[in-house]
Amino acid sequence: MSKQITITAEYFRQYRQKLGFTNQTSVKNFFGAKDITPSVDYNYINLLNKRLYEIVDRLNSVVSDEIRIDDLDSFKKDNIDRVFKLLKEENMIPRLNNLRRRPEQVYFSWLQGYIVSCYFSKIVGEIFGVNLSAVSFIGDDSLKDVKTFKKTAKADLEITLNNNEKIIVEIQSGFTGTNDIKQHKVIEAKRMFGKTKRHTIAIHFDLYNGQVAFIKLDEIKDNSVNWITRQQMEGQTVFNIDQNYFIWKITEKPLKYSEINFD
After folding, report:
1. Quick one: which of 89, 77, 84 has its CA closest to 53?
2. Which of 11, 74, 259, 263 has a 20 to 30 A CA-CA distance from 102?
3. pTM beyond 0.85
């Protein structure tokens, strides 16, 4: 019978030191190659940027006159070229990761949503019947200081209506025909209503089908049948937007907030 050997935690530490590591995280990163950052394919990104230009062009060709942007070149330079240059200069693109996707794909998805928000921002005032000076940007996505660039549950806009009521607006976009709201957005909306009594309105642009939904997030019931689990999103719980919430065709004149029945 062989002699029993006691293997201790001190042996583990000494072994890792002999390998050349001073902490456990470094060992895990080494064996998992997590300390190697893949090179960003900027030729691929150039093609993705061209696709973003095409998306803007095609969208602008079908929307109503009230929405259409006259100077598309300036819009693309400011909201695609400038943003790409800023993220590249700050070396942000290699650090974009989500659900193990390539950083180029995460960049493209993020910029798609950003562009949609910028594109439709000019009609927010018309929808809510206010001057754009009454619209404040409160989201945590920051392009003024990309060192603090992040995505949180906080909504995009705060609007002061003509009766001085303040509401919070979350602008979302969908490109595949699957239209969901992440659970943490609803939780945040309910938290904000409990704290400030301000409603949060989600405006969801389904660009795949050319329709727009309006949902009062803080009034979504916890037991709604629309809560589902998306396996392709690593089992996240989401609120699937029912077709009844879609009440505006993108090709037609924008609706007025005062005309929307949320009941």
Report:
1. 77
2. 74
3. no
